[in-house]
Design brief:
Helices cover about 35% and strands about 20% of the residues. By secondary structure, the protein is an alpha/beta fold. Keywords: Carbohydrate metabolism, Isomerase.
């Protein structure tokens, strides 16, 4: 996967000077060994931090080793100020974990009191307003701390990615899609840069790529991806030209940033002026690790990028689109799956979902709605061709979004579920989704809190990592699909 960071972890142990330092060092070495046994690469800093000078030395050591993320390990109670200053001095995401006591046979010299020390550590972090990742239960054996470190990797990768991300937009956000017109202030709050451009800028760049010698190679790659009979032969060179335009723009405009995502205006002017719909090209870029959100949905692109960093796999952006008809539910879902009708819905978009996440019968087709709107009645599709259509393959999924509301406050939702192996009988890039208690979640989170119709989709259950990331970013309102026995604040208890 391109366009996401590679995490290089460091491990620093701390020790309170009235405790035996060798206890912390021995426990640190055990964590490094446990990480190695799990296939996790981690640099074990040899400097153990007892005071502020040790802190400076340890931070320099991990920086020189090329580490961009840290685990600070309380092998015993730990020195409150130096251990929190590590996170302040280190330029990258930091997690804290503490040692569990090892045996009831050695609770004199072998007792570390890190269970107590983690409380003071967290208090000191709060006093200094330092963000850090603290696992759900941050006290454990070497093997358990190694598992915590494994869980931290996608969190660290995402935090690093966002700190180096630039979102590039083309075109004003659509007039009738007010939900996509969120303030950009929230991007700056989490360290993301933005570059806004005109659709004319993109059109000029596209025309300048006419005759690009790389086009035939990209065309052949597109044909190989889709398979014979699943594309419009006369359209491929135009789409390849557009793909190269975006890739070159990303490289030439990332500036001081390392990573990019796009949010592009895709209708109504785009197809008539470029001669095709951009959806299939968008799907190919996200498969490479470069999100291209529809309808200049900036926070959709941001959400997609977060999912890419978390999973290291392709994601998509879909409309939370239409209810499942009762007859389809009764025929194809109720006999096989333990979901209520209101747990299900259809996620749809014109064709931006990567082909690797779709059923085998997917193909490049045309945008039916745009064809009705933009091309002569009863004519064959022309410039409205270019979508990637078919049913989305069955998979575990996480539906989620990070959004800035009209008041400039960032908030988010996360809901785990699945794409059902049930034919949609419809058009577009589309799937039947099932999320437990979706009906209540739809009403009391999506509707109640004014979320837009776009949601990002990761093709695995990754809510745990997403929740940790959002907490690390300082997001206070993180909604989820609450179980039946846990009512929402706005839920009518008498309904």
């Amino acid at each position: 996967m391109q366009n996401i960071p590679v995490v290089k972890l460091g491990l620093i142990a701390v020790s309170r000077d009235c405790f035996i330092i060798s206890l912390s060092e021995r426990r640190r070495a055990a964590i490094a060994a446990a990480c190695a046994a799990k296939g996790l690469e981690i640099y074990e800093a040899k400097t153990t931090v007892e005071n502020e000078l040790d802190m400076l030395k340890a931070v320099d050591e991990v920086k020189e080793a090329g580490c961009n993320a840290l685990c600070v390990f309380l092998g015993n109670f730990g020195p409150e100020t130096p251990e929190t200053l590590i996170a302040q001095r280190f330029d990258g995401p930091v997690m804290y974990a503490a040692a569990a006591e090892e045996t009831g046979k050695d609770l004199i010299n072998g007792r570390g009191d890190a269970y107590c020390g983690m409380l003071n550590c967290s208090y000191n972090l709060g006093m200094r307003k330092i963000r850090a990742h603290i696992p759900e239960y941050p006290v454990g054996t070497a093997e358990e701390v190694a598992d915590m470190i494994a869980d931290f990797i996608p969190v660290a990768r995402t935090v690093l990615g966002l700190s180096g991300l630039k979102i590039i937009t083309f075109g004003p956000r659509p007039q009738d899609f007010f939900a996509c017109n969120a303030p950009i202030k929230g991007l700056y709050d989490i360290g993301v840069e933005i570059e806004e451009n005109s659709e004319l800028d993109l059109l000029v760049a596209y025309k300048e790529h006419a005759g690009d010698p790389r086009i035939p190679e990209v065309v052949e790659d597109m044909k190989k991806e889709m398979g014979e009979g699943r594309y419009y032969d006369d359209l491929m060179a135009r789409m390849a030209q557009f793909e190269l335009t975006l890739l070159d723009w990303a490289e030439q405009h990332k500036g001081a940033r390392k990573y990019v995502a796009f949010a592009d205006k895709c209708w109504p002017a785009f197809p008539s002026q470029f001669g095709f719909e951009p959806c299939y090209v968008n799907s190919r870029l996200v498969a490479k690790g470069i999100p291209v959100s529809c309808e200049v949905d900036i926070y959709g692109a941001l959400s997609e990028y977060i999912g890419l960093c978390v999973t290291g796999d392709a994601v998509t952006l879909l409309d939370i689109n239409n209810s499942v008809p009762a007859d389809l539910y009764k025929e194809d879902i109720a006999p096989k799956f333990n979901y209520k009708l209101t747990d299900t819905f259809m996620g749809f978009h014109c064709g931006n979902t990567p082909s690797c996440k779709m059923c085998a019968d997917r193909a490049i087709k045309y945008q039916l709605i745009q064809h009705r709107l933009l091309e002569p009645k009863d004519s064959d599709p022309d410039f409205t061709r270019g979508t990637l259509e078919g049913d989305i393959a069955a998979s575990d999924i996480t539906f989620y979004r990070l959004q800035c509301d009209a008041q400039g406050v960032l908030r988010a939702y996360i809901a785990e579920g699945e794409v059902l192996p049930v034919a949609t009988r419809s058009f577009g890039g589309i799937g039947i989704f099932a999320i437990p208690e979706m009906g209540r979640f739809y009403r009391h989170v999506l509707v109640e809190k004014g979320y837009p119709h776009h949601g990002a989709v990761a093709f695995s259950h990754c809510g745990k990592a997403l929740f940790s990331i959002l907490r690390y970013l300082g997001i206070e309102d993180i909604a989820y699909n609450q179980p039946a026995g846990l009512p929402y604040k706005t839920e009518n208890p008498f309904a």
